[in-house]
Specification:
- The protein has 300 residues and is α/β, with parallel strands linked by helices.
- It has a single domain, classed as NAD(P)-binding Rossmann-like Domain (Rossmann fold), CATH 3.40.50.
- A 6-stranded parallel beta sheet has the order 2-1-3-4-5-10, with helices on both faces. Strands 11-8-13 form a 3-stranded mixed beta sheet. A two-stranded parallel ribbon has the order 6-9.
- Strand 3, helix 3 and strand 4 form a beta-alpha-beta unit.
- The longest helix is centred in the first third of the chain and has 21 residues.
- It is globular.
Length: 300
C-alpha cells in the first residue's frame, strides 16, 4: 500500500491554516500535518529540522508569519527573524528533504505608487517594516531553494482570527457611525479561496505519491486575490449592505486616519500569471465576501 504524500502546514492556527484544515477532507490523496506556532516555531531551526526528519513531508505550506503591521515598527528584529531569516532556513530545510516549499507573502512588498496592477517582476519597495521583512523572506527563500513557490496576497479575511471583515461586523453592531479610509485601494482575499488555490496547485503538480515527481518549472512568485478593485470604504459598504446594518459609514482620507506603519495607497496586483500557469479561476470579491459573512453568522 502506497503511503500518501504529506503536506505540512505551519502556522496552522492562523486564518489560512484554519481554512486549509477545513478543506483537508476534500483532498483524500494527501495526508495533512497541521502545526501551530506553539507546536512548530519556525524560528527554532533545529526543532524545524527534526520535524522534517520525522514527518518527511512532500510539501510545506508556510502560513506562519509575524503579521502585526504597526507593532512591527517597534519589533523590527522579531519581524525580520520570523518573516525573513526563519523563512530562509525553512526553505533550505525543504530543499534538504526534497520538500516543495510554498510560502505566503504580501502586497506590502510594493510601495503603492503604481497606477497599474503590479506584476510579479515589478521592483519591490516596501513602505514599512512588515513589508520589508516579508520581502526579505522572499529573497532568502528563492536564494536558498530555487524551487520555492511564493504566493503574494492582499487584504486577507476569513471567519477566523482578526481581520477587517470581522472588525467591521463587530463595530457595525456596537456603533452608529464608523470612519473608513477611502483613498487606499486593493483587492480583498478570502482565505478560503487562497486555500483552494494552493491545493489546486499541489493537486495539479503531484500526480501520485512519488515525492520525486515534483515539477520545478512552476517555481517563482505568483499573485493571488479575489477579482475586483475597491477601497476600504467600498469594502466596508459591501459588508454593511450584506449585514443589513443601519450604521453610517463616513469616508476619510489616510491623513485623517494615521497609523504607525505607512500603508500603500495602491495594492492591486496582476493575477494573470497564476491563472494561466495553474488554470485557476478567480472568484469575484463580492461573492466570496457574502460566503464568508454567512459562515461567520452561522458560527456566532
Amino acid at each position: 500500500m502506497k503511503t500518501l504524500p504529506k503536506i505540512l502546514v505551519t502556522g496552522a492556527n492562523g486564518q489560512l491554516g484554519k481554512e486549509l484544515k477545513d478543506r483537508c477532507s476534500l483532498y483524500a490523496g494527501f495526508e495533512f500535518v497541521f502545526l501551530s506556532k506553539e507546536d512548530f516555531p519556525i524560528h527554532h531551526f533545529e526543532l524545524a529540522r527534526n520535524f522534517f526528519k520525522t514527518i518527511e513531508p512532500a510539501y510545506c505550506i508556510n502560513c506562519a508569519a509575524y503579521t502585526a503591521v504597526d507593532k512591527a515598527e517597534e519589533e523590527k528584529d522579531l519581524a525580520f527573524q520570523v518573516n525573513g531569516e526563519a523563512v530562509g532556513v525553512l526553505a533550505a530545510i525543504c530543499k534538504e528533504y526534497q520538500t516543495r516549499f510554498i510560502h505566503i507573502s504580501t502586497d506590502y512588498v510594493f510601495d503603492g505608487r503604481s497606477d497599474v496592477p503590479y506584476k510579479e517582476d515589478f521592483p519591490a519597495n516596501p513602505l514599512n517594516v512588515y513589508g520589508a521583512s516579508k520581502l526579505e523572506g522572499e529573497k532568502q527563500a528563492l536564494q536558498l531553494n530555487a524551487d520555492t513557490i511564493i504566493l503574494r496576497t492582499s487584504w486577507v479575511y476569513s471567519p477566523y482570527g482578526n481581520n477587517f471583515v470581522k472588525t467591521m461586523m463587530k463595530l457595525m453592531v456596537e456603533k452608529n457611525e464608523i470612519c473608513v479610509v477611502n483613498d487606499q485601494v486593493g483587492s480583498p482575499t478570502y482565505a478560503g479561496d487562497l486555500a483552494e488555490a494552493i491545493m489546486s496547485i499541489i493537486s495539479n503538480r503531484h500526480p501520485d505519491s512519488n515525492r520525486e515527481a515534483i515539477d520545478n518549472q512552476t517555481a517563482g512568485v505568483y499573485h493571488f486575490s479575489n477579482d475586483g478593485v475597491i477601497s476600504w470604504y467600498e469594502f466596508a459598504t459591501a459588508i454593511k449592505n450584506i449585514m443589513g446594518s443601519e450604521c453610517v459609514l463616513q469616508p476619510v482620507s489616510t491623513s485623517e486616519f494615521p497609523t504607525v506603519a505607512t500603508r500603500p495607497a495602491f495594492s492591486v496586483m496582476d493575477k494573470t500569471k497564476i491563472q494561466e500557469s495553474f488554470s485557476i479561476k478567480l472568484k469575484d470579491w463580492t461573492e466570496s465576501l457574502r460566503s464568508c459573512i454567512e459562515k461567520i453568522k452561522k458560527a456566532s
